[in-house]
Amino acid sequence: MLKRRPPVILWMLAVVGVFAAISPLAYLIIRLGEYGAEKVIGQIFRVRSFELLTNSLVLTLMVGATAIILGSFQAWLATRTRIRGRAVYALLAALPLAMPSYITAYAFTALLPDFKGFWAAWIVLSLGTTPYVYLAVSAALVRSDSATEDVARSLGLGRLQVFKRVTWPSIRPAAVGGMMLSALYTLSDFGAVSILGFDTFTRAIYNAYRSSFDRSAAASLALILVLLTLLLLVIEPILRGPSVPTDSRSKKTSHVQLGGWSFFAHAAVIGWATLGILIPVVSLIRWNLAGLSSVNFDEVLRALVNSIGYALGGGAITAIFGLAISVLAVRHASKLSAVAIRMIWLTHAVPGIVVALSLVFLSNQLLPSIYQTSLLVLIAYLILFLPNAVVTMQTPIGQAPKALDEVAASLGATKTQILRRVVLPIATPGILAGAALVALSVLKELPATLLLRETGVETLATRLWGQTSVAAFAGAAPYALLLVVVAGIPAWWLNRQVRANINQQINLDERMERE
Amino acid sequence: MNKSLSRALKLGAAAIATVVAISGLTGCAKETTPATGEQTLTIYSGRSEELVAPLYEQFTEETGIAVEVRYAGSAELAAQILEEGDNVQADVFFSQDAGALGALTEAGAFKTLNSDITDLVEAKYRATDNSWVGVSGRSRVIAYNPELISEDELPASVLDLANPEWKGKVGIAPSNASFQSFVTALRVLKGEKVATEWLAAMKENAVLYEKNDQIIVAINDGKLATGLLNHYYLYELETELGATTVVAKLHWFESGDVGNLINVAGVGVLSDKPEAQTFAKWLLGKSAQSYFVDKTSEYSLTGLPAREWLPSLEEIGSPEIDLSALAPLAATLELIRQAGLTD
Predict the structure, then answer these.
(1) CB contact under 8 A, B100 and A455
(2) C-alpha closest to that of A243 among A339, A330, A170, A152
(3) Is the CB of B2 inside 8 Å of chain A's CB atoms?
(4) Which of A287, A457, B231, B343 would give a disulfide with B27, using CB separation of 3.0 to 4.6 Å?
C-alpha cells in the first residue's frame, strides 16, 4: 500500500496554526533578552517563587486528579450504566462548563464569606474543569465497542479487571487529554484564585504588572509556566499510553446494572451538581434580585451581540485550524505532525494577560493595521483555545476508518476529494463539537478580550468586569446571569452531540428487546 | 496533482475568506459618544465606566470633540501603552492612581503638558517634569463608630495604632491597593524598619478584611471601633443607606501624618493632537472638578471646595512625597506578606 501524503492545504493551515500558537514565546524571549540573564535568574530563583510554584503545582495536580477521576466516573455512569436519570446526569455533568470560574468563585464567596484559600480554589477549579474530562471520555466511551468487555468478562475476568484491562486503556487517551486541559487551565487561571485569596504563580505574574509595572519580570515568571507545560508534555504520552484502535462499525453496547451501588452513584452526582450548578445559580439569582433595577437594556443587548459574534468567529477560526492539525495528527501520523500537535500546547498555561500583551507587541511590530481590530481578537482566541478544539476533534476524526480512504483513492478520488467527501462528513459532528467548546471558552474569556478588543466594543464579560471593578455588584448581576445562560447553550449542545450515538443505541436495544 | 493543488488553493481561499468575513462581522456594536465635530479623541481610561462615562459625554457636549474610550485596569493599560511602542493608539491616559502614570513617565511615553494646565494644580499633585497632572484626590483616613469610641480617644498618628491598647479595635484591608500604596508611603517616609515594625504590630492588633467597603459596614454596624480606608467609602455607604442612618464618622490624624496620605487620579497626554491637551485642561475645569466633588466626593485639586463634611486639603496636611512612587510595589507586597497580613 502506498503511503499517501496529506493534502497541501492541511500543512498550510497547520503550520499557520502552530506558528500562531507559539508566537507569544517570541515575545517572552524578546522581553527576557532586554532584561538580561542575571535579572531573569534573580527574579526566578527567589524563595517566594518556589513557594508560589509549589502552591500552583499542588493545586494543579489536585484539580487534574479530581477532574480525571470524577469526569471519567460521570462519563461511565452516563454511558455504560442503566442508572435511572442518566440523561439528566449527563447534562448536569456538562453544564458547569458554562460557569466562568470567576463567577463560580464570586457566587460562593457571596453566600459563604469564609470560602477562601486552597480548598476553595480546589473545589471551584475542579467544578469548572471536570467537564473537559467528562466530555472527552463520554465521546470515547460512546464510540468504543463494549463487545470486547463482554468477551473479557465471558473469559472469566472480574469487573475491576475488565475495567483495568479493557475499558481504561480505550478511554485513557481521551481522559488524559481532558485532564491536560483541566491542569493547564488551573495553572493559567487568575480570576478564581484571586477572588478566593489563594496565591499562585499566575497571581504573581499579575502582581508584577500591577504593583511593579515590570513587564520583563512578568515575562520571566511566565517562562516558568511554559517550562512547566513542557514537563507536562513530556509526561503526557506516558500517562496517555498506547492508542487502542476500536472497530467503530460495531455499536453493540451493554449496560451495567449498578444494583446496590446506585445509591452512592446518585449521591455523588447530585452532590457534585449541587456544588457546581445549584449553589452558584442560587447565589446568582439572589444577586440579580438585588440588582435588576439598574439594567440598561440597550447596553446589555449590544454586549450580547458582541459576545455572540466573538464566540462564533473564534469558534469557526479555531475549528478550521484545529481540524487541519487534528487530521494531520490522526490520519497522517508522522514525527512532524506529532511535534506540531504538541507545540500548540506550549503556551496554553500562559495567563491570558501575557498572551494579550504579546499580541499587542507583535501586531504593532509586524502588522499595525490589525491592532485593535476584531481580527486580532480572533487570533488571540485561536492561540488560547486551539488545544481545546484539537482535544475534542481527535477522537471523532480517528473514527473514520482508514479503509474508506483507500477505497476512495482506488476509485480515483484525489486527496482533497477524500478529505472533503469521506473524512469531513464522518467527522462533522466532532468538528462542530470542537467549535462549540471554543465558542464557550470565548464567551467566558476576559483578559485578552479586554486588552485587544476594538476600542468601544464591550462584551458580556468586559461589562461584567467593568461593573464589579467599582464594587457595583448589583449592576454586574444581569451580565453574569446572561453570560451563564448563553454559555449554557453550547454546553447543552456539546453534551447532546456526545450522547447522540448512545441514544440511538438505546432505542435500538429497546426495539430489539420488544421484538 | 495540479488539479488537487488548485482545489487545495480554492479550499484555502475559502477558509481565509470565512475568517475575514467573520472578523468583519464581529464587534459591530460599538459604544461611542455622538460626534458633533470632525475630531475624535481616544481615551485609555483606568477609571471605571460606571464612574466617568457621564463625564466623557459632558466633555463631548461642551467641546464637540467625540471620544472613544477604552476601559481596563490602570496597570494593564500602562503595560498596553508600553507594548504599543511606536504605534500608541491612546491620545490620553486617565489613570486611577499615580503609580501607573509614574511608570509611563519613566518610559518617556508622555508629551509634556502645557503650562496653562499644570499651573492649575499644586506642585505636589503633579509630575516634577510636568508629564502628568493630578485630577482628583482621595485621602487615607481613620473611620470610627462614635458609639464605641469617642473622637478624642483617637490617636494623633497612624503609627500609634501599633500600641497594645488598639488590639482588636482597628480594621484594615491588607490586600487592597490603596492600603498597599499607603504602606509604600510609610516605607519611603519612615524607613523599612518602622514600616516592618508597624506591620508586625498590625498583625497583632488589626482585624483583617478583604475590602474597604466591608470595613465601613462593620464600623457602622457597631462590630468594629475603627478602620483605615479612603475617605469616600463613608460617602458611598451614605448613598446606599441614606445619610441619616449612618453613624460611622471620619477622623484625620495630626496634620502631616503619613496616615493622612493623599493619592490622586491623574491624566497624561500621549499624542500631539491639540484635543488631547484640551481634554487634560477640561478635566481641571469647573464642570469636571465639580463632578468629582459632587459625584464621587473626591477632592478637587484646583481649589474647588470639598463637600461640606470634609476638611480641606490644607487642613489635612498630606505628607510630602513623590506620588509617582506610590505604587503597591513588589517590595511593599513582600513586606505585608512577611508580616503575615496576606497569604
Answers:
(1) no
(2) A170
(3) no
(4) A457
* Test mutation, A31, A106, A455, A457, chain B, max B CBs within 10 A: A455
Q: Mark yes or no for CB contact A207/B343 under 8 Å.
A: no
Interface probe for A, chosen from B3, B74, B83 (most Cβ of A below 10 Å), is: B83
Count of H-run helices and E-run strands, chain A = 24, 0
CA A135 to chain CA mean position, Å: 10
CA distance B54 to A470: 15
Chain A interface disruption, residue of B4, B6, B23, B329, most A CBs within 10 A? B23
Does the CB of A12 have a partner CB in chain B at under 8 Å?
A: yes
Cα separation, A69 vs A86, in Å, equals: 18
| CA dist., res. B281 & res. B133, Å (int) | 10
**CB within 8 Å: A316 and B18:** yes
Grid coordinates belonging to A45: 530563583
Is B48 in Cβ contact with A457 (below 8 Å)?
Answer: no
Closest CA in chain B for residue A31: B83
H-run or E-run covering B268:
strand B262-269
Contact at CB, B333 and A353, closer than 8 angstroms: no
- Note down pLDDT in tens along chain A; length 515 residues: 345 677 788 889 999 999 999 999 999 999 988 877 777 777 777 777 788 889 999 999 999 999 999 999 999 888 888 888 888 889 999 999 999 998 899 889 888 878 889 999 999 999 999 999 999 998 888 877 677 777 887 888 887 788 788 888 888 888 999 999 999 999 999 989 988 888 899 988 888 888 778 888 889 889 999 999 999 999 888 888 776 665 554 455 567 777 777 888 888 889 998 998 899 888 888 877 765 556 778 888 999 999 999 999 999 999 999 999 998 888 788 888 888 888 999 999 999 999 999 999 999 999 999 999 999 999 999 999 999 999 888 877 876 677 777 788 788 877 778 777 777 777 788 888 899 999 999 999 999 999 999 988 899 999 888 776 555 566 777 888 899 999 999 999 888 887 776 666 556 556 655 65
Q: How far apart are CA A178 and CA A73, in angstroms?
A: 13
Burial class (CB in 10 A: 0-12, 13-18, 19+), B37: exposed
CA dihedral B295, B300, B305, B309 (to 10 degrees): 60
Say if residues A308 and A486 touch (Cβ distance below 8 Å): yes
Distance of alpha carbon B343 from alpha carbon B341, whole angstroms: 7
The interface predicted TM-score (ipTM) is 0.86
Q: Does B51 touch chain A (CB under 8 A)?
A: yes
Query: Judging by DSSP bridges, how do beta strands B206-208 and B170-172 pair with one another?
Result: parallel
Q: How far apart are CA A305 and CA B26, in angstroms?
A: 8
109-128 of A, contacting B, C-beta below 8 A: 117
Nearest to B211 by CA among B264, B173, B170: B173
Contact A415 B4 (CB under 8 A): yes
DSSP-based three-state secondary structure for A366? helix
User: CB-based contact (8 Å) between A421 and chain B?
Assistant: no
Of B7, B23, B76, the CB nearest to A414: B7
